[in-house]
Fold:
Amino acid sequence: MPPLPLTFPASFVWGASTAAYQIEGAAEEDGKGPSVWDSFVRREGAVRDGHTGDVACDHYHRFPQDVALMRRLGLDAYRFSLSWPRVLPTGEGAVEPRGLDFYDRLVDALLAAGVDPTPTLFHWDLPQALEDGGGWMARETAYRFGEYAAVVGARLGDRVKRWITLNEPFVHMSFGYAFGVHAPGRALMLDALPTAHHQLLGHGLATAALRATVPDAQVLIANNCTPVRLRQDARGEADRAAAAAYDALHNRLFNDPVLTGRYPDLSAYGAADPSWGGLVHEGDLETIAAPLDGLGVNYYNPTWITAPASPDSGLPFDMVEPEEAYPRTTFDWPVVPDGLTDLLVGLASRYGAALPPVWITENGCAQPAGVDDRARIDYLAGHVGAVAQAMERGVDVRGYFTWSLLDNFEWAEGYHQRFGLVEVDFATQRRTPRASFEWYRELIAAQKARR
Ligand code: IFM
Structure:
């Protein structure tokens, strides 16, 4: 076993994350409306082996068992997402009380287990009815999101204090709307850029709604962030420009407006005009930049960039493989813990006083099936250590949520990629804690013993 990392402050929050469509199942139960994922999984070839989230981990029915696992783990907090169409089947209008009741019961069970509920309002399962009206390409969706935030804030806000608005708007824009490999499966390429602005506007409106409905709300956004790296053999001016362009699209497009009230320079993507051709209305950036209590950072690996090899590539960068032989996950993602330290130190240096406390809202790895997951322990130990190093270098990090508590539905990969501290047998729904569960339990217990 790798040594347990250094001591963290007594107030440091240890958590684990999941998302509604990936674990809940009960896709058509208790009045839930269809989401874009319910539709997408039925498209021929969209998801490996035709897997769907119809049942997933059946968490909708088995949540008491899952909360018991969290208690055993000693989690301080649990990050889950609310299914918008479970609460508002068409995304707006009439509330489905049975959907809200489910989250009410979950929140009560978590509190009874000493686990702080940390819901995310949107983790990619947009109500299909809203997608039919344009989805995140339509400005109206942002207003509907603000209204939905007010509904759940009013119901849960007496007990839930830490809220996350969006999960990874970059990934939703690029995979869902630009490449079409995730729901809603639209392949708009650079024409998908409006979905960035509309998600961010929704974030701002939801932040205002939560502040209005939840006394002492702490509001965060969970952005997927990557440190952009250059290979040794590609460090010319054009490579640096390509890296800056990629950084603008993946990181700064979602962090800058929220933290500084400005969009980065997107001229490399044909959006030179600051209003993006009239899409950004007066006052939008003020709404988006409403002060936050924390920045959620989801980190998996760095991205290596060079100048595009072909002038016809359509993008101002190429993604390449690193020259180093890093260990790989079953997703073939390189394992680079020091990328997390670089990322956090880089955020602090870029945003300075504008950076609120940082929360690692996702970090974890896909590993082979089986409970003896030594590679996951190495991954987690390395990354928790990387957080400690960033904190030693002055970055204010308040919590760490590993992805994920359970094996679950990994989007286009179906059930083929396993990220859980707990193995799930999807035929029987049997949960078996892995060696990494025990390792994380001991880590948390040791940190708590020092409190
Ligand atoms: O499973 C996903 C999660 O939904 C969003 N962040 C990355 C995870 C692993 O791919």
In short: The mean pLDDT is 97. The two ends are 23 Å apart (CA to CA).
